[in-house]
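Appendix B. Chain record.
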Amino acid sequence: MLRHTMRSLAAAALIVGAPAMAAERETVAPLQAVMQDVGGARVMAFYTSDAGRCATTVMPDEEPGPRLRVALAPMATATVEGPDGASLALTCGEAAASLTVEHRSPGAKLAAR
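Structure tokens predicted for this chain:
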């Protein structure tokens, strides 16, 4: 059931709009997918608003693969790191109205918020 739900959410994210290629920092709306290279692998991230939190999913660009799901409180950040030191910081916006995705090169620091 969970696997089917995840695939449905991924499909819905792709139907809503083609995944955006994340710039250094990009803000997206619910179900707007972002594609990014992290540590030599392509990942897709998207979220839905759920009870005032960002229900965030991060997964490999290609099936099959693991998925990370995390519910972020407004203004909370989760970081996905690659083996080369590159990372993505995913920050839930106020009232879960947006998600900011920030790519960080190896050795770089996150931009001030």
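Further analysis of this model is presented in Appendix C.
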